[in-house]
Amino acid sequence: MQFIIPRSIFIFCLMVMASLPALAESQKILVKDPIMPKLPEVARTAAIYMTIENTSDSDAEIIGVKTEVAHHTMIHKTVEKDGLAKMEHLDSVIIPAKGTLELKRGSYHIMLMGLDKKKLAKPFSLSLMFANGDPIQVEITPQR
Ligand SMILES: [Cu+2]
Hints:
Immunoglobulin-like; mainly beta; globular
């Protein structure tokens, strides 16, 4: 017995494959005002702030951050407990559809740990990794 794939199914599969890159591209993320405040001479950690806007119709989830200037990079949120500011480590953070997430002092931030100070002499790049979609490169110029 011969098994023949109907032509219509074959064409449908081609169409699905062709639409995949478009799907990744439909995740529209805009990063504004990325900053890394001036560090004390002895600092081994640094916080990075920025505003991330999601102009798409679906939530965007950042599941990690990568950079060459630090050994570890984490997403943190500063919370106040019993009058003390504490940093919580988050596995991921959501930027709601048509929404904005502000990374700022006393709130969400990107934490760099085990800094390679030599590499901080000039601008460096940071990759925001998404659950769905391509990484986004952000250029950071350390303040001095
Ligand atoms: Cu932190």
